Amino acid sequence: xxxxxxMDAIANPRRRQILRLVWTAERSAGEIAAAFDVSWPAVxxxxxxxxxxxxxxxxxxxxxxxxxxxxHALGPLEA
Length: 79
Hints:
By secondary structure, the chain is α+β, with helices and mostly antiparallel strands. The chain has helices at residues 3-10, 13-21, 29-34, 40-53, 75-78, and strands at residues 27-28, 56-61, 64-69.
């Protein structure tokens, strides 16, 4: 994960909250959206940015999408 991409992704407080939510357990997109008082498109956009930065992984099962943090992706931030 490029350092700049990871830093940009976690600069937003909502994305940090989402990252914490999926840090220890895989969660469905619906579960993640239900945890926040914002629109589904806002949550979806944040999930997309976190996924593109490599900080979370997406797994599809039928029509459902599940997300989980990739702790190894934060390696550059620990340096």
